[in-house]
């Protein structure tokens, strides 16, 4: 996406103009559609679970803001709203007892728990299914972290280092399942000196302070480790799909850890605007349309898993925050033997929602500034 300041023409200052290449526009529309699908999938999880649990749902909405389309069902209003960011499943009595026996607030804790996690679970399942579609349609095999050989001149080879036949089990505690985990693990190391655990002759061997850095071998910069290829079977593809979904969660955990430790800052975060821009860039940078669509699908799968994980964080106003308070109030009521005041939790979630909306606004402004100024 490109922004252009036209400057002065005929003595008059011209406004911003948005110049978008045709394929960029296609990928932008795909990204917006993908957001809508992910949101619908998330809210559908809440909606279906609530209905199965006998909870009244007043409105099921995709998007925010003014309604573009509304249809009143038997008891639920179905709405498609203007802004394709967000959505909600408004249940009767979410925070207070309204006197309705089907209100969310008067249900048993197990039902509340199932409804609260259903949205994230739906996103996680969708992310896995998208990955599975990619894996079953394109992967002919996988590279596992079993050493088949070492490049000539590879240092620290032998009994005190790596040997052919070793399976690299973990690096600095990070478990390796496939070859791409090697580069992920090493990217977390500042100096390339790691504690590596390998499986050798059925036993785990610790290689402490093992130096593993890219070197030039036969004119190519690489680690110099040759790893084993495995042909893809049905079970192998299914396993790799599950692994990739799990690995998304690990990568998100790394990102959150970096955020809390200050390794990354607000400027490194992206909201819907930045994500749409990234999807467009990934698609247009691909060699052809087919590859572009596959790359975008992979990114959408990652976003689906990311949405699931983020929603389960114990932050007020998010599903995870509500689950957290569900557990806390249960513990307090068990210990104190009296019910907690639901207005306290309602107040905390309201404040949390205001802060989240403010953060979203700041990130959106940051995304727009990055689009304009690069």
Question: Which features characterize this protein?
Answer:
374 residues, alpha+beta, four-stranded antiparallel β-sheet, 49% helix, 24% strand, globular, disordered N terminus
Description:
The chain has 374 residues and is of the alpha+beta class. Helix 5 packs across helix 8. The longest helix has 32 residues, at 342-373. Strand 8 (167-171) and strand 9 (174-175) form a beta hairpin. Mean pLDDT is 87; it is low at 1-11 and 13-18. The protein has helices at residues 22-52, 109-138, 180-187, 234-261, 272-285, 289-311, 319-336, 342-373; strands at 2-5, 8-9, 12-13, 16-19, 57-72, 77-91, 141-150, 167-171, 174-175, 193-200, 203-211, 215-217, 220-222, 225-231. The N and C termini lie close together (10 Å). The strands form six sheets. A four-stranded antiparallel beta sheet has the order 9-8-10-11, with helices on one face.
- SS content category: alpha+beta
Series of H and E elements: EEEEHEEHEEEHEEEEEHHHHH
Low-confidence stretches: 1-11, 13-18
Sheet with the most strands: spatial strand order: 9-8-10-11
Give the distance, in angstroms, between the N- and C-terminal Cα atoms: 10 Å
| Count of alpha and pi helical runs | 8
Q: How many beta-strand runs?
A: 14
Binned, the helix content reads 40-55%
Strand content: 15-25%
Largest sheet features: 4 strands, antiparallel
Shape: globular
The mean pLDDT is: 87
Write down the Rg.
25 Å
